[in-house]
Design brief:
It comes from Streptomonospora arabica. The chain contains five helices and twelve strands. The protein has 209 residues and is of the alpha/beta class. β10 and β11 form a beta hairpin.
Length: 209
């Protein structure tokens, strides 16, 4: 076993012998000269187009109109008890008629009984229509957005980037990352699309401009 291991590692070392390295002995210089985005126009409009193509509902509002927009969305949904991260701003829910239950008060069974969840995000990628969560500010733990059947996500304008390479530096690599491109769905079984398999069946996004 030891001999096999050394042979494998020897081949790896040989393959990496001509790879440029940084200052540290383990640092590898990674080329970053690829295109960070593809210039497909206004990033906000592009994000809206991609999200809607994924069957997500999208609303555009202002900071002053956010509380009303969230209240309207939850009212249309008929949500009565809604989960939210502990640090989500109270101002978001100033006009919400539903009961807001903070994350720390919920176990898995409690999350499953929620009518939905409201969170922020770490980044929103226009070209792919992807919302990224890293359990940071106003996002809560990962389970918060995977268990409830409805996710209402607040995307502030400065969180929107054009391409994936522009999003990566904004993310904390040591945190659990959740990449959301539309409602959860799969077509693995006989090519029939089934929604809500790996997370929320319904995604609604509010862009704050």
């Amino acid at each position: 076993m030891s001999g096999s291991r050394e042979r494998v590692l020897g081949r790896v070392r040989a393959a990496l012998a001509d790879v440029p390295r940084g200052e540290g002995p383990q640092d590898v210089v990674v080329p970053r000269d690829y295109t960070p985005s593809h210039g497909q126009g206004d990033t906000t409009a592009l994000l809206v187009d991609r999200l809607e193509d994924y069957k997500a509902a999208v609303h555009r509002t202002t900071a002053e109109g956010l509380a009303g927009t969230l209240a309207d969305a939850l009212s249309r949904r008929g949500a009565r008890r809604v989960a939210a991260p502990d640090d989500a701003p109270a101002d978001w829910f100033a006009r919400v008629g539903a009961e807001i239950v903070r994350d720390s008060a919920l176990d898995v069974a409690g999350l499953d009984r929620m009518d939905g969840v409201v969170t922020g995000c770490a980044a929103a990628i226009a070209e792919t229509g992807t919302i990224v969560l890293d359990a940071g500010e106003a996002q809560g733990r990962r389970a918060l957005t995977l268990i409830p059947d409805y996710h209402l996500c607040v995307v502030e304008l400065d969180r929107i980037v054009a391409g994936v390479p522009q999003a990566l530096p904004r993310l904390a690599p040591e945190r659990p990352l959740t990449w959301i491109s539309g409602p959860s769905a799969t077509s693995d079984i006989e090519l029939d699309r089934v929604e809500g398999v790996h997370g929320p069946r319904t995604l609604e996004v509010v862009i704050v401009e």
